[in-house]
Design a protein that fits this description.
The complex is a heterodimer of chains A (about 110) and B (about 140). With about 110 residues, chain A is mainly alpha-helical. Chain A has one domain. Chain A has helices at about 5-30, 45-50, 80-110, and strands spanning about 40-45, 60. In chain A, strands 1-2 form a two-stranded antiparallel ribbon. In chain A, helix 1 packs antiparallel against helix 3 (about 80-110). The radius of gyration of chain A is 18 Å and the shape is elongated. In chain A, about 35% of the residues are buried. By secondary structure, chain B is α+β, with helices and mostly antiparallel strands. Chain B has one domain. Chain B has helices spanning about 1-35, 100-135; strands at about 50-55, 65-75, 80, 95. In chain B, a hairpin with a 6-residue loop joins strand 1 and strand 2 (about 65-75). In chain B, helix 1 packs antiparallel against helix 2 (about 100-135). The chains are: A mainly alpha (about 110), B alpha+beta (about 140). At the A-B interface, helix 1 and helix 3 of A face helix 1, strand 1, strand 2 and helix 2 of B.
Chain lengths: ~110, ~140
C-alpha cells in the first residue's frame, strides 16, 4: 500500500529523525564553543540520509570551516550555530505538523 | 525512539555547558575579587586563574558534552611595585601585585555570559521540539 499519506508519514518521520540528530549536533557545537581545538560538526544532507535507508543512523562529519578559526583553534561560530538551531527548530515544527495532517487524513478515511 | 533520545541529549549537552560556563564565571569573579590582593615578593601572591574546557562523551546518550578539564594558574609575571612603606614590602622595598587585568577579566566575563545564554536558548529550543513530538500523541 504505497498510499500518498502513508509515504507522507514515512518521509515526515525520517525528516524529524534527521532534524533531531542535526539539532543534537548543533547543541554539541554550541556547548563546545569555548573548547580549545574543537572542530564544528554537521550532519550529512537530508538527501544523502534518504539514500541509505537501511541504515537508520545519520552520518556526522566535520563542518567546512568558512568563518575562520578563533585563537584557540576552535571553529565554532556561535552566531552561525544559533541561526542553524532556529531553522532546524522551525523545520521540525513543519515536519511534525505534516505528520499530524497525514494522520488526520487517514483518520478521516477511517471515519473517525 | 531516536528522536526523543536526541532531544534529551540536547538538554544534557546544553546543561553540561551551563555548568562549565557557570564555573568559569565563578573563577572570573575570584580573579576580579583578588585583583588587589597584594603580597610580599616570592611569597605566594595570588595569580590569575584560567579555566580550560574539554570535550567529554556522555556514556548514556553518546553526546559530546563539555566539562572543565583544568583550572590552572596564569604563568604571566606578577607585577612588582616599589612601595617601601608598605608592611608587606621586602628588603628592597617592593610589593607584588597579581597578574590580573580587570579589562581582560571583564571581556572574559562577557564571553562566558554570552555562551551561557546561547546554551539556555538551546535548552528552550530542545524543549519546544520535544513538545511538538509529544503533541503528535494528542491527535
Amino acid at each position: 500500500m504505497s498510499d500518498t499519506s502513508m509515504s507522507w508519514l514515512q518521509t515526515a518521520s525520517q525528516r524529524m529523525n534527521w532534524l533531531s540528530e542535526r539539532q543534537k549536533v548543533i547543541s554539541e557545537n554550541i556547548a563546545n564553543s569555548d573548547t580549545p581545538n574543537y572542530q564544528a560538526r554537521e550532519v550529512e544532507s537530508f538527501e544523502s540520509y534518504l539514500t541509505h535507508k537501511s541504515d537508520r543512523s545519520v552520518g556526522i562529519r566535520d563542518a567546512k570551516n568558512e568563518w575562520g578559526l578563533s585563537m584557540d583553534n576552535n571553529s565554532v561560530v556561535l552566531e552561525e550555530q544559533s541561526l542553524l538551531a532556529a531553522s532546524t527548530s522551525s523545520q521540525y515544527r513543519l515536519a511534525s505538523k505534516l505528520y499530524g495532517k497525514a494522520h488526520a487524513m487517514i483518520s478521516m478515511v477511517n471515519g473517525k | 525512539m531516536a528522536d526523543l533520545d536526541n532531544l534529551s541529549a540536547i538538554a544534557r549537552t546544553a546543561g553540561s555547558a551551563l555548568k562549565a560556563q557557570g564555573e568559569r564565571l565563578r573563577v572570573i569573579s575570584e580573579n576580579i575579587a583578588n585583583a588587589d590582593t597584594i603580597g610580599t615578593p616570592g611569597d605566594n601572591t595570588y595569580r590569575r586563574k584560567v579555566v580550560t574546557f574539554g570535550e567529554i562523551v556522555d556514556r548514556e546518550t553518546g553526546a559530546n558534552m563539555v566539562a572543565i578539564t583544568s583550572v590552572s594558574k596564569d604563568p604571566a609575571p606578577l607585577r612588582l611595585q616599589y612601595e617601601p612603606s608598605h608592611p608587606l614590602s621586602n628588603e628592597e622595598g617592593y610589593i607584588e601585585r597579581p597578574n590580573i587585568e580587570p579589562l581582560v577579566e571583564m571581556a572574559n566575563m562577557r564571553e562566558a555570559a554570552r555562551s551561557y545564554e546561547a546554551n539556555l536558548n538551546m535548552i528552550a529550543t530542545g524543549r519546544e521540539m520535544r513538545r511538538l513530538t509529544l503533541d503528535m500523541l494528542d491527535k
